[in-house]
Amino acid sequence: MQIAIVLYPDFTALDVIGPYEVLGRLPDTEVVFVAENPGLVRNDLGSLSINVVAQLAEVPNPDVVIVGGGPGQADQMADGALHTWLRSVDRSSTWMTSVCTGSLILAAAGILAGRRATSHWGALEQLAEFGVTPTDERVVIDGHYATAAGVSAGIDMALTLAGLIAGDDVAQAVQLLIEYAPQPPYNSGTKDAAPAEVVEKLFTLFAPS
Amino acid sequence: MQIAIVLYPDFTALDVIGPYEVLGRLPDTEVVFVAENPGLVRNDLGSLSINVVAQLAEVPNPDVVIVGGGPGQADQMADGALHTWLRSVDRSSTWMTSVCTGSLILAAAGILAGRRATSHWGALEQLAEFGVTPTDERVVIDGHYATAAGVSAGIDMALTLAGLIAGDDVAQAVQLLIEYAPQPPYNSGTKDAAPAEVVEKLFTLFAPS
């Protein structure tokens, strides 16, 4: 099984590293990071650079595609090489997946039309502009599309997918390996759960779109 | 605030990217990835290379230090440049932290003696060899040491630390930003919770030490 993880400048690292850590550990799996422009690709915080060795065209038939989100997503919404590649691999892949605002890129490429999908809570409604039904769930599976909510939700999406791909026992073994028994010290991970002053603090600190 | 994230060959990516995504988003924070041998540092799965630009000696006074784990931890247990650096920054840093088997490196460097600490469940008891009290909790704070259990536990450790460093409201805002409201599809993240056949499957598939 070949997994292609798409990177672009100003990506959010955990969006892709969460699913990578889960799906990359499945038996007989090869992971390749791909980009329209290979080389060192820098993340949104600016302090992390991942070395991407493969151009999109060098990975024509991945079994699983992972598209993460991040501030750089906005620059990947215009039709071009990435969209063309996504439409092409969509026809042959087993799973097309996204994390966070990565689903907006899939949607803009035209491959999610008529589907249910999720995204980061702050971007969810934008999916409707592309004929996609915004679905406020942490992991949404519709056909061979698996979309995850914001950033950390990619881990849950990947474990769900791991079960579908390799069986429940293998997925559970991976969960145990990465000791994924989360204990968040706060209950503030959704807009509904977070106190109003925390939502305001977020907009003050991070001014997300 | 300067955060130094230590990388070495065969590190586990999520160990460091989890805390990075949380602590790297705190206001007025600079993150620097450091290594004994800078350049492209490759992870345990072999498909991810992070470009490290700073040598240990170039980061003499970090406020927070993060040491992750992974199979490569075994090669970082002998006294040498990394241990010397860890002992040095231990004297000036506000927080020394580890994820997964990263705590074994801190322990081997001699800076956890007499402390309570945690590690990956499969490695926890090894801490005792270094005069450290193995503590089967997801996040352990003792003095200015914050240790996390396996891989994904670094996210919980970092959110806990974010609250101590920047206040509960900022930590909660980061939690909301990364939409950290985990919904694991299985309950198999600890050795106690995992069915016996899953533990066996793990040893068959991954043969951890």
Automatic annotation (TrEMBL), chains A, B:
InterPro entries cross-referenced by the UniProt entry: Class_I_gatase-like, DJ-1/PfpI, INH-QAR
Signal peptide boundaries: none
Coiled coil spans: none
GO BP terms: regulation of DNA-templated transcription
Protein name stated in the entry: Isonitrile hydratase
Organism lineage: Bacteria, Bacillati, Actinomycetota, Actinomycetes, Kitasatosporales
